[in-house]
Amino acid sequence: MRRSALAALVLTLAPAAGGAADLTAALHWYGQSAFRIAGPPVVYLDPFRLPEGVPAADVILITHDHFDHCSPADVARIRTPATVVIGPAEVAAKLKAPVEVIKPGETRTVRGVTVKAVPAYNTAKAFHPRADGKVGFVVTVGGVTYYHAGDTDAIPEMAGLAPDVALLPVGGTYTMTADEAAGAARAIRPKVAVPMHFGTVVGSDADGARFAALLKGSGIAAVVLKKE
Fold first, then answer.
1. How confident is residue 33, by pLDDT bands cut at 50, 70 and 90?
2. Orientation of helix 178-188 relative to helix 205-214, angle to 10°
3. Domains of the chain, with CATH numbers?
4. Taking a C-beta distance cutoff of 8 angstroms, is the pair 163, 190 a contact?
């Protein structure tokens, strides 16, 4: 095969720059709503039931104080004296350790990363009242913008966020169902949508699969990550 033809074949087979594989390459899912963005810097979101041997955190972002999102034991495992923890006031009260308190609509820049807190709440359930000030986060790491929705229903504040990657709860009961999350994804307009908050406390693998199926043909790439 001529070199030019071989090069053309390689370009055809390689994923397009900015495609789903590229945008999720640094993202590690530990079940429920727990993620690590490899960075640098290393950013954890809602660390919970982390496996042994995970890297220390530069930044930890916690959406609210429920046990499956705010786990003092997991935070202690990955926290160092230099780690910055950001979350709403209820997280600071639970951790009883230094936390940069943030409210919906506020922005912090830490370790070279800009973190914006966005609202997260239920509209027809009592588990996550809007008045509590629970949050989701929009954060850019390594040139990729991630939106971690936290525990929420589909809410108007999501519309048009347009991150590269949206991490959306799909398990129902306490958050959106897969169907509701697929509708929210269309309003958010990310390049990639990743389901979360299923298979641990509520929901099952079927919810993640249904979410992905519902986004076929939408122009949004749905990626169901394997739990690590």
1. very high
2. 40
3. 19-222 (3.60.15.10)
4. yes
